Amino acid sequence: LGLLQTGAPLAGKHVLVNAGPTLEALDPVRFISNRSSGQQGYAIATALARLGARVTLVSGPTGLAAPAEVTRVDVESAREMLAACKAALPADVAVCVAAVADWRPDEVYGLKLKKGREGPPAITLVENPDILAELSASGPGRPKLVVGFAAETNDVEAHAVAKRQRKGCDWIVANDVTEPGVMGGGENAVLLITAAGTERWERAPKSEVAQRLALRIAQSL
Ligand code: CTP
Ligand code: CA
């Protein structure tokens, strides 16, 4: 039994992970989106499943293969991602790694917009729902641990600490996306912000960052 527990500390737990970009349609052939390879989120889903968790991975379009032993739900827009995340509840833990588009065009045209004499169309954007904030909101169905990510280009720790407060999540994993090789690359250098303070994790392959985070999640439950 001891071995079983160390091998599968997350057995019996359901973890919801979201990953990848969202895609916000303008018309049938155009969209706006965010840069995201999905690698870090997929690595986290994989690491959690290896520790025995039942994992639901709600994913925007990435082109990545679904990790083994993970249930993947494919979505495109932020609103679809929110609905799929809510439908996956209850979960013991939620890890929001997705690069959710902050805005979407206010109107989706049913037909392709054509070039015309009026010149380029003006696109009005409206704000998308905040999935992490909604999953963090207190209520009977709230996961015991909600983890968000923060991609920053400056003042990483200050922005991430403020983000943790604003979103109401328990932990924030923050990274500096101006570091070479992070966006779209294989490595990540992150800060883990919890109620207890800030931990600086040394730069490592995304798969190792994922394993370390999965172990921390297992310890905290
Ligand atoms: N997030 C989300 N829904 C959104 C926007 C962000 O769930 N509409 C989540 C991301 O998945 C991530 C965290 O919130 O876990 C932080 O995302 P980030 O873009 O860094 O923060 P924002 O609150 O959108 O603030 P800003 O982009 O202005 O820095
Ligand atoms: Ca954002």
Question: Can you put this structure into words, describing what you see?
Answer:
The protein is of the alpha/beta class and 221 residues long. 28% of the residues lie in helices and 29% in strands. It contains 6 helices and 14 strands. It has helices at 2-7, 39-50, 78-88, 131-136, 156-167, 206-220; strands spanning 14-19, 23-27, 30-33, 54-59, 70-74, 93-96, 103-105, 125-127, 145-152, 171-176, 187-188, 190-194, 197-200, 204-205. An 8-stranded mixed β-sheet has the order 5-4-1-6-9-10-12-13, sandwiched between helices. The chain has a two-stranded antiparallel sheet with strand order 2-3. Strand 9 (145-152), helix 5 and strand 10 form a beta-alpha-beta unit. Helix 2 packs across helix 6. The protein is globular. 37% of the residues are buried. Cytidine-5'-triphosphate (CTP) binds next to helix 4 and strand 9.
